[in-house]
Design goal:
Among the domains are: 1-45 and 152-157 and 164-173 and 407-469, no CATH class; 47-139, uronate isomerase, domain 2, chain A (Orthogonal Bundle), CATH 1.10.2020.10. 50% of the residues lie in helices and 8% in strands. The protein contains 20 helices and ten strands. The protein has helices spanning 14-24, 38-42, 50-55, 59-67, 81-93, 99-112, 123-134, 141-147, 164-172, 185-188, 195-206, 213-229, 249-260, 267-288, 304-310, 325-336, 354-362, 387-400, 420-438, 446-464, and strands at residues 29-31, 150-154, 177-179, 181-182, 234-239, 291-296, 298-299, 318-319, 344-348, 375-377. It has a five-stranded parallel β-sheet with strand order 4-5-6-9-10, with helices on one face. The chain has a three-stranded parallel β-sheet with strand order 1-2-3. Strands 7-8 form a two-stranded antiparallel ribbon. It is globular, with a radius of gyration of 22 Å. The protein starts with 13 loop residues before the first helix and ends in a 5-residue tail after the last helix.
């Protein structure tokens, strides 16, 4: 029997152990998609207690606690911080096989030096020790990032955002790059409540009147220039329903005005509007040298009762199962035919789509700029960022594409303690490569294998996003 989460955790072969310990373990981190607060980073926030740092806003944990029968008061309510922590500790012990169990204990080990398994019995001791350490200067937000060797991170930001804190961090010369990401979904999601109000906000932010789709794109392009000056390297889009049906400008402009007036749109109209905006924005991204992320397949706010109580992103989203290969092909081709397909990362939320996305990426790799892996099968995301999902994603990359060009892992997190997820992925990556080598499927070429792991952990993302680290 192996020891609980020891140095060889998830590493099954000697090759895997060497690759992780000699190469991956100490590699710097580029976290190119997360939901961290640049304000907290700028002010170098000190959290009052481990509950606020660990549980506030973490809907992964909230879902597990609800499944464990925990009262909502102890999850999102106004209960005492220790009571909430104890409820989480009791839940953790029930998370056997769930990545939350591994993440929790990696975070306790890497940040706090705690190797005792968390449970209701150990909750008070661990709570007190964490809180005592959090009082120290080295546990400020900035130092938590430095502790895990984070060199760059990309937050998720709306086009109307002032990017005040991103700019302040750049002006200060903070040693970690904190880059905004451009996420224009409120301008694309014409079917969502508040669309007309959002267009007014965009008009104000861009100082551009928006009376048609052409002016909408001009306003978004104007804001994108502002984002780029503030360090933006990547854009992000959540695709949750019909997202590409070919349409003329006049058709889309008519749909735009219909949406502004609050009229209900058909699924076909949504596909035309979404697709036109995504395609035209993608061409703008290509011209400005920015990468485009497409996160596909969430079904959001399933519990209307709790949406009305708590709002979005509170743990009531899940995995959709719609089929979208023809739409995705059409969207990518609409940009590629003009030679303006940007570097693009394709993420699925349903594991059935991984092979399809890996194969789809291969259709659009050709470029004269020498970009390796121009179109990527993205990291195992959200409900897939577990061992099974990561192994499936790596298997699809190896079998259908080139894993050597992969830009590596991300956290997609709101927690400043989430960065051991990179270690979790790196252990799974090294184990995958180690098994290939020790099965005699690839030579034990130390020089190349070391570079392969270095590239996937850091170098590929540094080059792909033009971070110049």
């Amino acid at each position: 029997m192996k020891n609980f989460m020891d140095d060889d955790f998830l590493l099954e072969t000697e090759t895997a152990k060497r690759l992780f310990k000699d190469v991956a373990q100490d590699a710097a981190i580029i976290d190119y998609h997360n939901h961290l607060s640049p304000k907290d980073i700028f002010h170098d926030r000190h959290f009052d207690n481990i509950t606020d740092l660990w549980l506030s806003g973490d809907h992964y944990k909230w879902r597990a606690m609800r499944a464990h029968g925990v009262s909502e008061k102890l999850i999102t309510g106004d209960a005492d911080p220790y009571e909430k922590f104890e409820a989480w500790a009791d839940t953790v012990e029930a998370c056997i096989g769930n990545p939350l169990y591994h993440w929790t204990h990696l975070e306790l080990q890497r940040y706090f030096g705690i190797t005792t398994p968390l449970s209701k019995k150990s909750a008070r001791e661990i709570y007190d020790k964490c809180n005592e350490l959090l009082k120290k200067d080295e546990y400020s937000v900035r130092n938590l990032l430095r502790r895990l060797n984070v060199k760059a991170l990309c937050t998720t930001d709306d086009p109307v955002d002032s990017l005040k804190y991103h700019r302040k961090l750049r002006e200060e010369g903070f040693d970690i790059k904190v880059c905004p990401s451009f996420r224009p979904e409120k301008a694309i999601n014409i079917e969502k409540e508040g669309f007309a109000d959002y267009i007014k906000l965009l008009e104000n932010a861009s100082a551009t009147p928006i009376s048609n789709v052409k002016e909408l794109l001009e306003a978004l392009s104007y804001r994108l220039d502002f984002f780029k000056k503030s360090g933006c390297r990547v854009t992000d889009h959540s695709l949750e329903n019909s997202f590409y049906i070919p349409a003329s400008y006049s058709e889309v402009d008519e749909i735009f005005h219909k949406g502004l007036s609050g009229k209900k749109l058909t699924e076909k109209e949504l596909g035309k509007y979404h697709g036109y905006l995504l395609s035209e924005l993608g061409k703008i991204y290509a011209e400005k040298g920015l990468a485009m992320q497409l996160h596909i397949g969430a079904i959001r706010s399933n519990s209307k009762r709790f949406y009305e109580m708590l709002g979005p992103d509170t743990g009531f989203d899940s995995v959709n199962d719609f089929n979208y290969a023809p739409q995705l092909s059409g969207l990518l081709d609409s940009m590629d035919r003009d030679g303006l397909l940007p570097r693009t990362i394709l993420y699925c939320l349903n594991s059935k789509d991984m092979d399809m996305l890996a194969a789809m990426a291969g259709n659009f790799q050709s470029n004269e700029e020498g970009i390796r892996g121009k179109v990527q099968l993205g990291a195992a995301w959200w409900f897939l960022d577990n061992r099974m999902g990561m192994e499936k994603q790596l298997e699809s990359l190896c079998s259908v594409g080139l894993v050597s060009t992969f830009v590596g892992m991300l956290t997609d997190s709101r927690s400043f303690l989430s960065f051991p997820r990179h270690e979790y992925f790196r252990r799974i990556l090294c184990n995958k490569i180690g098994n290939i080598v020790e099965n005699g499927e690839y030579p034990d070429n130390k020089e190349y294998l070391d570079k392969l792991i270095e590239d996937i952990c850091f170098n590929n993302a540094n080059e792909y996003f033009n971070l110049k680290l």
